[in-house]
Amino acid sequence: MSGLISELAVVPGRVTLSSGREADYYVDLRRVSLHREAAPLIGRVMLDLVADWSFDAVGGLTMGADPVAAAMLHASGGSLDAFVVRKQGKAHGLQRRIEGPDVAGRRVLAVEDTSTTGGSVLTAVEALREAGAEVVGVAVIVDRGTGAAEAVEAVGLPYRWAYSLTDLNLPTQF
Ligand SMILES: O=P(O)(O)OC[C@H]1O[C@H](OP(=O)(O)OP(=O)(O)O)[C@H](O)[C@@H]1O
Ligand SMILES: O=C(O)c1cc(=O)[nH]c(=O)[nH]1
């Protein structure tokens, strides 16, 4: 799996990140999470990562989290639902911020493809809590080691990642 991430997702070059920070490379995990061979592996790796946590639905802030959640749903053999947290609520239709089976009163896992500051996944956590879900923790495929762990732990949640930058032989930054 780490080989596939290095091969498919690491894009060298100066880039502005979601938080406005700058970095010398991007880890475009959508190229992995939407890949025919890699996506099923992601489902299994992420389920293994949180095998000791109890939850029955998984998802996060659209769109990086969406294929991760779908991969886990498919790998779970029928034990997990998935959901999508919109970046903004929708003004028409049913006006739902969180799409999918209702999460109110359920134990849920918040996921992300890559975390830098943790801001995106924490937006999802906040929306989930507002919707009445109990978030049991946060899990990401790649953690950039730049504050997400501390930010997630500061809201009282455990945080796990499948791969660090060191696991991918990438230089750590800022
Ligand atoms: O930890 P953070 O500082 O929040 O950064 C990580 C976020 O940035 C990327 O998404 P992006 O904001 O580019 O949006 P997208 O998922 O809609 O492509 C990535 O998929 C994470 O969601
Ligand atoms: O912080 C980000 O925006 C970010 C970093 C990264 O390596 N990959 C990604 O998809 N987003």
UniProtKB/TrEMBL annotation:
Gene3D superfamilies: 3.40.50.2020
Domain Phosphoribosyltransferase: start-end pairs: 41-150
Pathway involvement of the protein, from the record: Pyrimidine metabolism; UMP biosynthesis via de novo pathway; UMP from orotate: step 1/2
Keyword Glycosyltransferase in annotation: yes
Catalytic activity: orotidine 5'-phosphate + diphosphate = orotate + 5-phospho-alpha-D-ribose 1-diphosphate
Residues bound to 5-phospho-alpha-D-ribose 1-diphosphate: R86, K87, K90, H92, E112, D113, T114, S115, T116, T117, G118, G119, S120
GO molecular function: orotate phosphoribosyltransferase activity
InterPro entries: OPRT, Or_phspho_trans_dom, PRTase-like, PRTase_dom
Cofactor dependency: Mg(2+)
CDD domains: PRTases_typeI (cd06223)
Sorted UniProt keywords: Glycosyltransferase, Magnesium, Pyrimidine biosynthesis, Transferase
Function recorded in the entry: Catalyzes the transfer of a ribosyl phosphate group from 5-phosphoribose 1-diphosphate to orotate, leading to the formation of orotidine monophosphate (OMP).
Assembly: Homodimer.
Family: Belongs to the purine/pyrimidine phosphoribosyltransferase family. PyrE subfamily.
Protein name: Orotate phosphoribosyltransferase
Species in which this protein is naturally found: Spongisporangium articulatum
